[in-house]
């Protein structure tokens, strides 16, 4: 079996590590709400899922992608201006520049897609999960 890396899977990695889990039994990524667990304690719940053959799926934050885009595509001046900002402050500043300068947004969607693809492939390699691209 192999995990299929496609647009649906890429969307799942942006929704939080606690939301989606990978199953070694089915080679799919499933929502935690679809996995029955009658356990309230989060630590016990994690152990329970792992005993069923699940591991937490990769989570990529918006800030991570935005920072990578700035580092890869933006001028040193803009990169230096955004670098010290953290969290929401960084995200707000990113969108300000994104909306103000058309050249800033050029290629961002493609960059997001490629970034997620590379990160998922690396996550698969780190966890000994066979995969292919759709």
Average of the residue pLDDT scores = 89
Main sheet strand line-up: 3-2-4
Class by helix and strand content?
alpha+beta
| Rg result | 18 Å
Order of helices and strands: EHEEHEHHHHHE
Count of individual helical segments: 7
Largest sheet: 3 strands, antiparallel
Low-confidence stretches: none
Say how many strands there are. 5
Backbone shape = elongated
Q: What is the end-to-end distance?
A: 14 Å
What percentage of amino acids are in beta strands? Answer: 5-15%
Helix fraction, binned, reads: 40-55%
Commentary on this structure:
The chain is of the alpha+beta class and 134 residues long. Helices cover 54% and strands 13% of the residues. The protein has a three-stranded antiparallel β-sheet with strand order 3-2-4. The longest helix is centred in the C-terminal third of the chain and has 19 residues.
Write a concise synopsis of the structure shown.
With 134 residues, this protein is of the alpha+beta class. It has helices at residues 7-12, 42-51, 62-73, 76-82, 87-100, 102-105, 108-126; strands at 3-5, 20-23, 28-31, 54-56, 131-133. Helix content is 54%, strand content 13%.
